[in-house]
Amino acid sequence: MDKFVIKQWKNSENHKSERCEIKWQMEKDLVNSGDEGAESPRKKLKSDTGGGAATEPLPLLAEQEAVRGAEYSWRRIRAEGLDCDYTKLFTKSEADEIFVQLEKELEYFSGDLTKVLVFGKWHDIPRKQVTYGDLGLTYTYSGVTLAPKPWLPVLEKIRDRVTQVTGHMFNFVLINRYKDGSDHIGEHRDDEKELEPRSPIASVSFGACRDFIFRHGDSRGKCATHRLEPVKLLLGHGSLLLMKYPTNVHWYHSLPARRKVLAPRVNLTFRKVLPPPKN
DNA sequence: AACGTCGCACTTCT
DNA sequence: CAGAAGTGCGACGT
Question: Which nucleotide comes closest to A126 if you measure CA to C1'?
Fold first, then answer.
């Protein structure tokens, strides 16, 4: 399966580095991404000694324990107004297979749907994007309205696993593909008005392991009113990050550039989108 | 607010 | 240890 993944990747159009380097990185990413947990292994990342800190070692949450027994171990990520749970959703071999299938079957948006409107200016987004979900829903984001394509079996499989493990149902998924470490997404909150209020968002990742950073809204800028440390996670191959209310009220999140990452990552954020208002 | 890019200061790597 | 590379984050835009 690894060979298949690597072959698949070598046929991809987006890279400038040596093939052997890419192959090596891909192997490394896939090997490393299986069990890294939510906390960065890098020493510079603060452990929970300090102020707004974040992570405790793996207690199981009662309701999920009832559903899945000890099969999934969860890491709670907590800070003031931040409430997330992280677990490995798929085994490495399951995740490898799904990743190959996603790379083969997903059809990303092109043309106008690859741009966002900010301050009256159109920008190409530094990633690829597509939405799938129940037909009739729409999702509007920075000047672009995205209509979902119909569910694919592989997406239903992921969605159903998320439901099984979290007890939450989702009718929509926004998919972002980061071709390498230069692709990224800036700080934002998922506060679109067509999201069901207080519903959690389930973020499932495949491929390269990437840093993921939360910053408290009031800690940003020159006149910050709070001084909360950013909360930094690593999102690994086959992982699930469940972002629960009220995380998205006060915390911004981003996937920063990581120039040394050479392999692609595909991220799926499952959401509960309200049906369009009747007119 | 938006959410991207840019520039600069700082840190980490080699 | 010094220069290069990588990162964090505020400023800016319409």
Answer: B4
